[in-house]
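Q: I have 299 residues here and want to know how they pack in 3D. Can you give me a structure?
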Amino acid sequence: MSQARGIPQNRAMTTAFASVDDVCRALADAGYLASDAIATTTFLADRLGKPLLVEGPAGVGKTELAKAVARATGARLIRLQCYEGVDEARALYEWNHAKQLLRITAERDGDGHWDALRHDIFTDEFLLARPLLEAVRSEDPVVLLVDELDKADVEIEGLLLEILSDFQVTVPELGTITAAHRPFVVLTSNATRELSEALRRRCLFLHIDYPSPALEQRIVAQHVPGLEATLVESVVRLVGRLRELRLRKAPSVSETVDWARTLVALGSTDLTADVLRDNLGVLLKHQDDIERAAKALDL
């Protein structure tokens, strides 16, 4: 990327991780146990300066990956939570119309001319920066998390293209604002709709599925250190069995951890039928799922 179009070369090439092993260690220290695939792709996103598009089922650690990268690198996390109807004003910027009106009213009886006033009210003082512009304007390193992009309208993807290509934003009244530091960008998607090819071309792609039993046991042991290893293994095995059922919502990794914490809170040393039957609501969030699971587990 040339200096005329984007970030100065010396800033664009700044990296946070020295190697894939460094990513594993740094994320582990930040409370995130990464698989080899996650660590490798995170390293490449950092080294190549590319946004990271992360897809996978809900609750497998997509959002937590961005948070962990921010903690591991000491960067500020800026989050754009997407939803149906989110627009440019919520994602990028808007003008503070109430404050502009106050300025106009205050100057109305003065000697100010409209031409001068018009320029005066379209300045940084009246600009409300939303997450995308805030990330570009930040003087400090930033992790920009665009969460659940598939829930937003297609127009938001178009808004992202300029930012992901050149890390710059054009505000017509102020001109083009270029990032002082290239943000580490994480886009997450639950794949409820197909994202555009133009967006995908600008990103490195990572699919995160439910972790292997061995990795999930390590995750549970890290978050619930008071649980016996044999019970951790039983918890993960139970959750794995539930995920094989045709449920409306399979248990996420965070719900596995919640289930382990439930056992500690109850003082349980074994997964008895009574404990399972009385507490399935920790793992499952729909009554028909609970009934299906109870039948499959002979509870």
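Q: Anything worth noting?
A: The beta strands are 52-55, 76-81, 93-95, 127-129, 142-147, 168-171, 175-178, 184-189, 204-207. Residues 107 and 117 are 8 Å apart (CA to CA).
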